[in-house]
Amino acid sequence: MNCSDPSQYEGHVVLFHGPGKPLAWQATQWSCPKVGEVLVQITHSAICRSDLHTHCGHRAVTTPTVLGHEIIGRVVALGAQAPEVDLRGHPIAVGDRVTWSIYAHCGRCPNCQAGWPQKCAKLFKYGHEPVAKDGQPSSGGMASYILLRPGTAILVLEPSLPDQYAVALNCAMATAAAVTRQGEVARRKDPVVVVMGGGYAGLSTVALCRAQGAGRVVVVETQRSLHARALSFGADAAFHPEDDSLKAWISDHSSGRGADQVMEMAGSSAAAQLGLDLLAVGGVLMLAGTVFPSPALALDPEALVRRCQIIKGMHNYAPEDLVLATEFLAHDGAELPWDSLHGGLFPLAESQAAFELALQLPGKRVILMP
Question: What is the extent of the structural domain holding 46?
Answer without folding.
Answer: 9-160+334-369
